[in-house]
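Appendix B, Record 12. Input sequence as logged:
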Amino acid sequence: MEITHAVTLLSALAHENRLTLFRHLVRAGDTGLAAGILAEKLDVAPSTLSHHLALLEQAGLIRSRRESRHIYYSMAPAQIGLLLSFLVHDCCGGQPELCDLLPKPC
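Logged structural output:
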């Protein structure tokens, strides 16, 4: 991953509502959540939610699918994996045993 791409992804997450939204989608897994449910969870107006969803989708961190009249959003695991790999690529200065000190995900 190029550093400019990583900056784009991190910039998309650099807002309280977008980061919260992203975390909800990570918890929802591959099934995702409908836009209406996301609006309720974040307590934001639909137009505000649409703006945040569009930024995350343009960055490639989430994806959408239409089912009947509803749009469902879910995380994009491959892109998230690339970002995480980029962030820890040079972790621990070539001493992998030090990386065991990193906190484990919940």
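The two ends are 26 Å apart (CA to CA).
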